[in-house]
Amino acid sequence: MQRVLIFGATSSIAAEVAKRYAARGDRLHLVGRNPDKLGEVTKSCAQTDVTSEVADFSNLHANDALVARALTTLGGVDTVLIAHGDLGDQLQSERAFEAADAAICTNFTSVVSLLIPLANHLERACAGRIGVITSVAGDRGRPRNYTYGAAKGALTIYLQGLRTRLYAAGVSVTTLKLGPVDTPMTREHKKHLLFGKPALVAASIVRAMDAGTAEAYVPFFWGAIMPVVKNTPERLFQKLPFLSGR
Q1: How many Å apart are CA 80 and CA 68, to the nearest integer?
Q2: Per-residue pLDDT tens for 116-171?
Q3: Helical H runs in the chain?
């Protein structure tokens, strides 16, 4: 039985991940912002030992204590998934620093504020695994979401360094580069065949973390698409509306 800690547990994807760990009989501690949604996810995992806490991760200076409470509740931790994030409003982030700052805080700074105490604990324990959801948007800046993408790209770089730091301690760090998924966060987006489904995405996340994969594109086919997007010369990129358009 593993002790599993999930931050952002109320997202559709994280809720599906939690159910998979619960089905395996793992001990769960779930942390999320919305108390009603968190209660629903907790109930859906009731076949195993599960606890929860409501928290707002944007309260950066409270996150160290939040992690400490979670570790105390679980009696330590074997697996951590950090799953929270928000697309924000790109146009607002271009017009007002507060909107840009909020997007960067949610998608990068708040994650780092959780990773620091978690990494220190697992490094001392010389065991464990960390999974963090980033995005394919972090592979290249595009007009439609470059503030969000910049935050996710910074997170990917941070995780690269963290992974190498923790390697000697036997702690794995998995960067989960998600493509668009059909969830409430993308409800206003026109859906196409490349959109993932939460249950299938969750299965891929658990497999990647179990295997200690360094970086995983989810769904897998983004691993073939994004190198092309990333390496297209900028002058050509700017002339291709399906890449450079809003």
Answers
A1: 13
A2: 999 999 999 999 999 999 999 999 999 999 999 999 999 999 999 999 999 999 99
A3: 12-23, 35-44, 63-74, 90-95, 97-104, 110-125, 146-167, 198-211, 222-231, 234-237, 241-244
The total number of structural domains in the chain stands at 1
CA torsion through residues 138, 222, 113, 122, sign? negative
Predicted TM-score (pTM) of the model is 0.94
Domain that residue 54 falls in: 3-244
H/E stretch holding 31 reads: strand 27-32
DSSP 126-153: T--EEEEEEEGGGGS--TTTHHHHHHHH
Q: How deeply is 43 buried, as exposed, middle or buried, from its count of CB atoms within 10 A (0-12, 13-18, 19+)?
A: exposed
CATH number of the domain at 73, please: 3.40.50.720
Q: Tell me the HSE value of 171 on the side-chain side, using a 13 A CA sphere.
A: 29
